[in-house]
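In this section we walk through a basic example: taking a raw amino acid sequence and producing a predicted 3D structure, encoded as discrete structure tokens. The instruction is simple. Fold the sequence below.
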Amino acid sequence: MQKFQALVAKMRRKEKGATVIEYALIAALISVAAIAAFSFIGTSVKSTMSGIGSAMKSATPT
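The resulting token sequence is shown next.
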């Protein structure tokens, strides 16, 4: 834990630390947006596949 605190303190003193934190925040924002998009798309795909499955079950072979 002390190494982490020393790293954070070192980053605060240097300008590179601010840049690293900014990139980390951007990456976190992108990942949250991706998770939300995949969740929405997953729900949509699930309902579409359920509809297709129901249609196939109700179809009678000829």
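Looking at the output, two observations stand out. Residues 15-58 form the longest helix (44 residues). The helical segments are 2-13, 15-58. In the next section we compare this with other chains.
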